[in-house]
Write a structure and sequence with these properties.
The complex is a heterodimer of chains A (75) and B (266). Chain A is an alpha+beta fold and 75 residues long. Chain A has a single domain, classed as Phosphoribosylformylglycinamidine synthase subunit PurS (Mth169, Chain: A), CATH 3.30.1280. Helix content of chain A is 32%, strand content 29%. The radius of gyration of chain B is 17 Å and the shape is globular. The longest helix of chain B is centred in the C-terminal third of the chain and has 14 residues. Chain B is α/β, with parallel strands linked by helices and 266 residues long. In chain B, helix 3 packs across helix 5. In chain B, 53% of the residues are buried. Chain B has one domain: Rossmann fold (3-Layer(aba) Sandwich), CATH 3.40.50. The chains are: A alpha+beta (75), B alpha/beta (266). At the A-B interface, helix 1 and helix 2 of A face helix 3 of B.
């Protein structure tokens, strides 16, 4: 099995990398860019259920105070 | 206990790089310091029981992968949980500096002294930069670490993820709880001691409520983003040839407080 885990700052927690990217895109003339948020993607291969992958997120991949995660099975 | 008998562990992991100067600070004060890799404890070759105090120094443990301090923090909370919790319960002091603060947050030890899931986060600096600068700090509690610290001190920060984030929507409640327990130890401020109120670069990270350092409710664990070991002697300051010519830097008091407590308590 192959899982994709996307970890990003919660909405409401400032995402400085996203803000800098927004600034740089506008500088390059992409005026219609409204907002940019960054995320980190983990691709995890192994015989694990969705519940197990959720445990991985809670225990290691995300800090539940500042970050959200999304899990997607990709095979 | 005599000061010369006090044994302090400077625990390093892969990527720790402030261990030597941190140990040197403790030795300068007259105690024993030993730099030992975390794996020695996990493998059972060494025990935390050998020591009266623990410092987790600055650096980039595990290359800051996943999040700063995350992997080292989980190593402590999963592989050394029992040993570490009894260390805390015995009242032995723990100091986490910079990456060490991040490790203490990720292990759950801060802010509430319980090994487990994190209840607070240190997120990327609001400037989206690695902030390497001297800052002013206002002393906000009288824990064993801050007892001898000046009301306004100056030390350097050097981090990319130093912004304290409290649970969304719960910020005010949690800050009130931290303040009520006297857990806010250090706040970023101006040279005159006025809290930074988020103003950059006085508050270099955009940290919530200008928090630069937190202690556990009992005051025996301190995590701080600034580096006291880099402000140990006055000649470590960029303006050391000007102004006052004291021998000690402001960071001296943090280590002194920790050792005075060990000598009195054990």
């Amino acid at each position: 099995m192959k899982w994709e885990v996307r970890v990003s700052y919660k909405r409401g927690v400032q995402d400085p990398e996203g803000e800098s990217t927004l600034y740089a895109l506008k500088m390059l003339g992409f005026d219609r860019v409204k907002d940019v948020h960054t995320a980190k993607l983990f691709i995890i291969e192994g015989d694990y259920s969705r519940e197990d992958v959720e445990k991985m997120c809670r225990r290691l991949l995300a800090n539940p105070v500042s970050q959200d995660y999304e899990i997607r099975r990709v095979d | 206990m005599k000061l010369s008998e006090a044994r302090v562990l400077v625990m390093r992991g892969p990527g720790t790089n402030c261990d030597a100067e941190t140990a040197a600070a403790i030795v300068e004060l007259g105690a024993k310091a030993e730099v030992v890799h975390v794996n020695r404890f996990i493998k059972g070759k060494r025990s935390l029981e050998e020591f009266h105090g623990l410092v987790i120094p600055g650096g980039f443990s595990f290359g800051d992968r996943i999040r700063s301090g995350a992997i080292f923090g989980k190593m402590l909370s999963y592989s050394l949980r029992r040993e570490l919790q009894s260390f805390v319960d015995e009242g032995k002091p723990i100091l986490g500096i910079c990456n060490g603060f991040q490790v203490l947050i990720e292990s759950g030890l801060l802010p509430f002294g319980e090994v487990g899931e994190p209840t607070l986060a240190l997120a990327k600096n609001a400037s989206a930069r690695f902030e390497d600068r001297w800052v002013y700090l206002r002393k906000c509690n009288s824990s064993l670490f801050t007892l001898k610290l000046k009301n306004v001190s100056r030390m350097p920060v050097a981090n990319a993820e130093g912004r304290v984030v409290l649970p969304l929507g719960e910020e005010k409640r949690m800050l009130a709880q931290l303040e009520e327990n006297h857990q806010v130890a250090l706040r970023y401020c101006s040279a005159e001691g006025e809290v930074a109120q988020g103003e950059y670069p006085l508050n270099p990270s955009g940290s919530y409520a200008d928090i630069a350092g937190l202690t556990s409710p009992e005051g025996t664990i301190l995590g701080m983003m600034p580096h006291p070991e880099r402000a140990f002697y006055r000649y470590m300051y960029p303006d050391w040839t000007r102004g006052n010519n004291e021998a000690k830097g402001d960071g001296y008091a943090i280590f002194e407080g920790m050792l005075v407590y060990i000598v009195e308590r054990f």
